[in-house]
Amino acid sequence: MTVIQEMLSSLPIADKVGAWGTLGTVRAQKNFDPDTDVEKLGESLPNTGSRQTIIDVLTNLNNEQRQDVMRLYKEQTQQDLIENIKKALSGDLENVIVGLLKTPIAYDVQELKSAMKGLGTDEATLTEIICTRSNERLKEIQNIYREQFKSELETNIISDTSEPYSGLLLAITKCKREKDSGIIDYLRIEQDSQILSELGPKKTPIVSKWITIIAERSPRHLRRVFDKYKEINFVDIEEDIKKHFKGDFEKALLVIVSITKNTPLYFADRLHSAMKGTGTNEKTLARILISRSEIDLLSIRVEFRKKYGKSLYSTIKSEVKGDFQSCLLALCRAEDI
């Protein structure tokens, strides 16, 4: 890791944006005119042939501007824009447009609830959202979740997942992850790597200690712990996770290691998985493009091209069709040569 990469990785996302310019593909529209946008939407919604206008308007605004459009639309029409979108559109296009109109917190809440709805639980989505959001974001998610569904996120996690996976998710939702202090604590790095290397009476790792370290240490500290772990055990920590753990707990630990080492690469892998094989996971595809469009989608595009030898833009173009394709490509923004 270069000095510049080390400095950048230690900054929270907001600071990265301030220092380097947005790493997202969607930015605030400079000549934002909400009245014009509301007028265009008002004309397009009754006309099913004007879906592209809806896509163009909403994908060229950032989320804050979309919220302004929603409020102005309500003032001028006394109607809810999301409800009218649901009446005018359907299927995957409806889902992605509604996702764009929700605030990032409300969208996370919707996706978490959906992941635990019905007979099956979508553990991959639970892991993706809970393990990639900041302490502050997780606190807000839990508050909105409680207000909207009159139940606790933690309670629903317990009822829909099993130990030790549920224990890891609950530990993360406690929001005890430390912030990067900028100080390298070599003694603590050594101690944590030794603890992760310990085996209990049955020659298995001590799960509770793994959960504490993985859920509470800062990303920068964990990266150094993972390096030290390899130095001690002569193997990447991912290999020992696969050796000693199984099921959703194993998958979640691997996700956290991946996110800690390279967050854009993790999302590039998620997008690739959503589009490989015979079927496309449209929901995962839309969620990642929406949720990362103002954060690091440019970086995700770079990692996707680097690893898979094909651009994210062209892969989306070949895997999905119609208005849904147009909307996702608008969020992706451009081809990477």
UniProtKB/TrEMBL annotation:
Repeat is among the record's keywords: yes
A Pfam family of the record is Annexin
Matching Gene3D superfamilies:
Annexin
Which GO molecular function terms does the record list?
A: calcium ion binding; calcium-dependent phospholipid binding; phosphatidylserine binding
What is any one of the record's Gene Ontology cellular component terms? plasma membrane
One of its GO biological process terms is: negative regulation of coagulation
Q: Which InterPro entries match?
A: Annexin, Annexin_repeat, Annexin_sf, ANX5
Keywords linked to the UniProt accession: Annexin, Calcium, Calcium/phospholipid-binding, Repeat
Q: Which family does it belong to?
A: Belongs to the annexin family.
Listed name of the protein: Annexin A9
**Which species does the entry assign this protein to?**
Pelobates cultripes (Western spadefoot toad)
